[in-house]
UniProtKB/TrEMBL annotation:
Keyword hit for RNA-binding: no
Annotated pyridoxal 5'-phosphate binding sites: G218, Y356
Cofactors required: pyridoxal 5'-phosphate
Protein name per Swiss-Prot or TrEMBL: Diaminopimelate decarboxylase
Enzyme Commission number(s) from the entry: 4.1.1.20
N6-(pyridoxal phosphate)lysine sites (modified residues): K49
Function, in words: Specifically catalyzes the decarboxylation of meso-diaminopimelate (meso-DAP) to L-lysine.
Native source species: Salinimicrobium gaetbulicola
GO molecular function, one term: diaminopimelate decarboxylase activity
Catalysed reactions, as listed in the record: meso-2,6-diaminopimelate + H(+) = L-lysine + CO2
UniProt key word Amino-acid biosynthesis: yes
Membrane-crossing segments per the record: none
Subunit structure: Homodimer.
Ligand binding (substrate): R298, Y302, E329, Y356
Length: 410
């Protein structure tokens, strides 16, 4: 997918528009799979929350991947995409017992991360296999909002509560078939990940009927040229060896599971916008585009970096620009960024727009959410239409306010 392909997509479908390259998704999936090819039983569950378009889920089904879901709606999307329930794991946080029970009826793997729900669910449904999410109290991740394995995190059951956990399992007679952890996103230090894994292995020894151990994900992808990333190959070599060793100690061949999202789809995505205005102030040159944090919130929410390229004039002289949106408050995508000279009407392409971009988009300022396009077999496929004004009104019910006029007169 080159610049000319992207420009044609912008011309055909308008801007702003999200574009995903299926070839890149497939290559990332194969890279992770190959890194752990020494493991006899490997399961890769794509984290649906990263990008939940049903065409993307169908792509992962074709790759024989499973799905990691966090809501009953994501579970139903996976089923709608044709994914077998046995290949879906449901890992919610803070949801009601009623939702968990409803999901259990759909036949997917349940993953519980708090003692209260574990005891309630186990008491009522001891026959349903359950995975337990452990909080290893290991700080990992590129931002406090996405570091979820530390001691103050709302996620998982503390390793210090293992005795209480074991009492619940014994009292209910429930079947624990998996152990899970997720330390955070944008993990760089493999040794920290391996340290957390040792905690998980030690915890796993308390359960005699395990089928799998889920190590979460959070692998970092590069956000700019020369950027550091998780060394998947090194992690694969070291963790595979340790996992095989543990299986021998455990006396059973277990499945090693992961739940990557960003690693699989981030680099496959491009976000295309059109420049509305070049605005020169006393200190800054703004490139104001036809989008905002209503479509791509990560730079404002996490301070995340997305490389931005002027694909209309890629060979132009580089100048410094602050790229900003059209939302009616501070709405900055990039500050003082070197980009090929921009003119009004140019198309800019944002890199790493495949994960947590469209899935976090909104209708703030009553703007329409953009379309999504899948670039597959050298052809652009529209996989979500641009919203219309009728989409904004959908679900709204005009109230009867006929009495207001009389009250105003009074």
């Amino acid at each position: 997918m080159n610049n000319q392909d992207l420009l044609k997509i912008a011309e055909e479908f308008g801007s702003p528009v999200y574009v995903y390259d299926s070839e890149k998704i497939i290559s990332q999936y194969n890279r992770l799979k190959n890194a752990f090819n020494q493991v006899k039983h490997l399961k890769i569950n794509y984290a649906v929350k990263a990008l939940s378009n049903i065409s993307i889920l169908r792509l992962f089904k074709q790759l024989d991947a499973g799905l990691d879901t966090v809501s009953i709606q994501e579970v139903k999307l996976g089923l709608e995409a044709g994914v077998d329930p046995s290949k879906i794991i449901y890992t919610p946080n803070g949801v009601s017992l009623e939702e968990i029970e409803a999901v259990a009826k759909l036949g997917v793997q349940i993953n519980i991360d708090n003692l209260s729900i574990l005891e309630q669910f186990g008491s009522k449904h001891p026959e349903i296999p359950v995975c337990i999410r452990i909080n290893p109290h290991v700080m990992a991740g590129g931002n406090t909002n996405i570091s979820v394995g530390h001691i103050d995190s709302k996620f998982g059951i503390s390793i210090h509560q293992i005795p209480h956990l074991l009492r619940i399992v014994e009292n209910t007679g429930m079947n624990i078939n998996g152990i899970h952890m997720h330390t955070g996103s944008d993990i760089l230090d493999i040794e920290v990940f391996l340290y957390a894994s040792e905690i998980l292995f030690e915890t796993a020894k308390n359960f005699k009927e395990l089928e799998f151990i889920d190590f979460g994900s959070g692998f970092k992808v590069p956000y700019k040229e020369g950027d550091i990333e998780t060394n998947i190959e090194e992690l694969g070599e070291k963790l595979s060896a340790r996992f095989k060793e543990f299986c021998k100690e455990y006396g059973k061949e277990l499945t090693l599971a992961f739940e990557p999202g960003k690693f699989l789809v981030s680099e496959a995505g491009k976000f295309l916008v059109r420049v509305n205005v070049i605005k020169q102030t006393t200190s800054t040159v703004f490139a104001q585009v036809d989008s905002g944090f209503n479509h791509l919130i990560r730079p404002m929410l996490y301070g995340s970096r997305h490389e931005i390229h002027n694909i209309s004039h890629p060979e132009g002289k580089e100048r410094f620009y602050s790229v900003v949106g059209y939302i009616c408050e501070t709405d900055t995508f990039a500050t003082n960024r070197r980009i090929s000279e921009i003119k009004e009407g140019d198309i800019l392409a944002f890199d790493n727009a495949g994960a947590y971009c469209f899935s976090m988009a909104s209708n703030y300022n009553s703007r329409f959410r953009p379309p999504e396009v899948l670039w597959h077999n050298n052809k652009a496929h529209l996989i979500r239409e641009r919203e219309t004004f009728q989409d904004l009104l959908k679900g709204q019910i005009p109230a009867d306010l006929s009495d207001i006029e009389n009250k105003v007169d009074e």
